[in-house]
Structure to design on (366 residues):
């Protein structure tokens, strides 16, 4: 007998959870979204088994409901769920990047019999939407759970067991502790990346060499400034208390190092960078996951207009999904290399075979 799981919001995170769970043939996944076109895409690419824009239809038989929508939409969805007919002992969980407010809201609003467990997978991307979803997005990443005081242990165990398919490391944490820590390691860095980019954009208005000279360092530290503005607006407003404190601490730290620069304190400036390097180098490595080039295919391309479009059209016509595409080198009259990332090994092999058939020189590394 199959178990129904409802995913509310079939985007990057909802889609990635669906892809991980659907490896288990006993699980039937129903997707709910406001956008019919997103649902069509998720259905056509096999991310979900069924799709609906009607919430009651999505959740009626679900044993587990994932809320995977932007943070500010989680509250009204909790309200709507509290009015609907749900399966007995249903587990409702969310994937929002903040936990305290959501957990407190669920505690107040959800009726007895609904087991709410806050959740936050600590992996993601600056990209949004189901087309960026991957069954391995959470592999080896931490996945934080913040159950309500009254949620039975059995519910936490059931959700943990379901989530093993994501290959994430599940940890249970207090919601406020989560918000404080994630504020420092995720939310505040997103603010800083955007501050840096906006600063350079202002300078660039006066002199376009800023943009042209922005090289590896600037790109590395600002990748996350390409994330969804709507998502980050919601996160900041829902973790205001911790972020204001982190920002004040950061201003002091910046003042301290700039005072050392002003007095040309060579030793202390070096010590400042040494401390940062030692801590950074000691961060635990994630062995595998979204950022690993696991399903990358390299294609030699003649550098003339239309070639990349032709390749993506060929793949699209065969319903082969691409999660990333990058031109590694193009100079006039020189062959360029296109790197295409696929969602899984099977799609990579299909893509490789297809492009070879059309006489492209294709290869994988490693
Ligand atoms: N992107 C990340 O790196 C990341 C990582 C961990 C957690 N999160 C959290 O996951 C959640 C989703 O983020 P995402 O990156 O998957 O966003 P996304 O934009 O890729 O997907 C969100 C989906 O929700 C749908 N949606 C919006 N409002 C809705 C509503 N009221 N009802 C039903 N569907 C609705 C959208 O149409 C979209 O398909 C957010 O709460 C975010 O904080 C994001
Ligand atoms: O890799 C990225 O692009 C991310 O920003 C992922 C990231 C993070 O800050 O690490 C962003 C938000 C989440 O809630 C969890 C993970």
């Amino acid at each position: 007998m199959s178990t129904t799981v409802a995913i509310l919001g079939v985007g990057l995170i909802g889609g990635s959870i669906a892809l991980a769970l659907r490896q288990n043939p006993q699980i039937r996944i129903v997707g709910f979204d406001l956008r019919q076109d997103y649902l069509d895409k998720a259905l056509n690419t096999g991310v979900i088994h069924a799709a609906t824009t009607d919430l009651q239809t999505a959740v009626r038989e679900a044993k587990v409901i994932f809320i995977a929508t932007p943070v500010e939409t989680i509250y009204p969805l909790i309200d709507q769920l509290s009015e609907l007919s749900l399966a007995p002992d249903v587990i409702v969980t969310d994937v929002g990047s903040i936990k305290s407010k959501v957990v407190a809201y669920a505690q107040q609003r959800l009726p007895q019999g609904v087991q709410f467990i806050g959740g936050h997978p600590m992996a993601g991307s600056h990209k949004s939407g189901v087309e960026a979803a991957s069954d391995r997005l959470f592999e080896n990443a931490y996945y934080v759970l913040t159950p309500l005081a009254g949620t039975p242990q059995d519910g936490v165990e059931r959700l943990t067991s379901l989530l093993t398919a994501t290959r994430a490391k599940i940890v249970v944490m207090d919601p406020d502790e989560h918000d404080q820590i994630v504020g420092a390691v995720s939310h505040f860095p997103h603010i800083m990346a955007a501050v840096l980019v906006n600063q350079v954009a202002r300078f660039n208005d006066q002199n376009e060499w800023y943009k042209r000279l922005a090289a590896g360092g600037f790109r590395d530290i600002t990748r996350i400034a390409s994330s969804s503005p709507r998502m980050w607006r919601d996160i900041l407003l829902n973790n205001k208390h911790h972020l204001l404190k982190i920002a004040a601490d950061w201003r002091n730290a910046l003042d301290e190092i700039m005072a050392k620069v002003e007095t040309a304190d060579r030793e202390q400036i070096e010590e400042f960078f040494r401390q940062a390097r030692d801590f950074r180098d000691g961060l635990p490595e994630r062995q595998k996951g979204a950022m690993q080039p696991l399903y990358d295919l390299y294609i030699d391309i003649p550098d003339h207009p239309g070639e990349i479009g032709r390749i993506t059209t060929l793949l699209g016509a065969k319903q082969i999904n691409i999660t990333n595409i990058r031109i590694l080198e193009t100079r006039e009259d020189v062959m360029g290399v296109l790197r295409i990332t696929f969602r899984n090994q099977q799609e990579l092999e299909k893509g490789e075979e297809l492009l070879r058939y059309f006489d492209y020189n294709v290869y994988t590394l490693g």
Residues 330-334 have pLDDT under 50 and may be disordered. The longest strand covers residues 322-329.
